[in-house]
Recover the amino acids of this structure.
């Protein structure tokens, strides 16, 4: 009985993690500029990874594998913001300006065309 | 020297957790790799209070638990915005940084980047520039809740004034 419950919870977590991953990819496609897309990409390496690893931990039960999976999650949560920040810094120093205070950003300004000539 | 000791103990625990095969040969290999890594770290001069893996030890787990909660709510918010992308209002805000040590400033900036909806673009000793997806994401940071949590982690009294 309890195994069925654990399987159901673990399956739900894995499915939810997959769903968040798909939503993250959809966000990368739908959001208008580079910096907003970073937020959507951030979903795939936080909640998506969190839920999938939690689902896998429930499948393995309490063993050394649990600790290994938790360590994978820990390292992922340490490296993901570093990579995101490095991307944002690289874009900023390459002259891609974030859209400021526009109500609805036009869909095609992620190339930073108005600022491309004035790169510093 | 106590930082070298703390690094050694952490590496031993990590090796024991990851290896899973406990035979004499592997113990010798594990011990020698721990010694090698500690020696290299000492040579590289990266053993110190900032690199101490046991820094913030008991409080860190409470902070992580709180941060995971923040990550979940921020993710659900961004997921809603993905489904209705017309409602986003990306803009750049400046947030004061009142933490005193470099480690806790980095912790603050990284926690901010880790929660979807806010990405740290640049950080200086007293403020950081943050790209926010919309007003609700920015509000979570501007309310200073995360800053107070990191201050608590750092072990300082909660003060609003920026570092001198």
């Amino acid at each position: 009985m309890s195994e069925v419950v654990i399987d159901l919870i673990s399956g739900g977590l894995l499915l939810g993690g997959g769903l968040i991953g798909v939503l993250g990819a959809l966000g990368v496609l739908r959001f208008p500029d580079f910096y907003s897309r970073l937020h959507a990409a951030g979903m795939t390496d936080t909640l998506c990874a969190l839920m999938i690893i939690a689902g896998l931990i429930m499948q393995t039960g309490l063993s050394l594998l649990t600790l290994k999976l938790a360590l994978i999650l820990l390292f992922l949560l340490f490296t993901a913001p570093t990579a995101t920040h490095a991307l944002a810094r690289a874009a900023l120093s390459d002259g891609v300006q974030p859209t400021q205070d526009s109500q609805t950003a036009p869909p095609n300004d992620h190339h930073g065309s108005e600022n491309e000539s004035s790169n510093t | 020297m106590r930082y070298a000791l703390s690094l050694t103990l952490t590496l031993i625990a990590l090796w024991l957790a990851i290896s899973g095969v406990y035979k004499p040969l592997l113990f010798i290999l594990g011990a020698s790799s721990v010694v090698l890594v500690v020696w290299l770290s000492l040579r590289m001069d990266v053993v110190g209070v900032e690199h101490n893996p046991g820094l913030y030890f008991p409080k860190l787990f409470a902070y992580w638990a709180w941060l995971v909660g923040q990550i979940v709510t921020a993710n659900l918010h961004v997921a809603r915005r993905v489904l209705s992308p017309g409602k986003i209002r990306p803009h750049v805000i400046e947030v004061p940084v009142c933490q005193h040590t470099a480690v806790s400033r980095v912790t603050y900036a990284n926690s901010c980047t880790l929660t979807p909806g806010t990405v740290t673009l640049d950080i200086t000793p007293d403020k950081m520039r943050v790209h926010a997806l919309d007003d609700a994401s920015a509000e979570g940071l501007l309310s200073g809740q995360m800053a107070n949590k990191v201050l608590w982690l750092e072990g300082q009294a909660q003060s609003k004034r920026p570092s001198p």
Notes: Chain B is about 60% helix and 10% strand. Residues 57-154 of chain B form one domain.
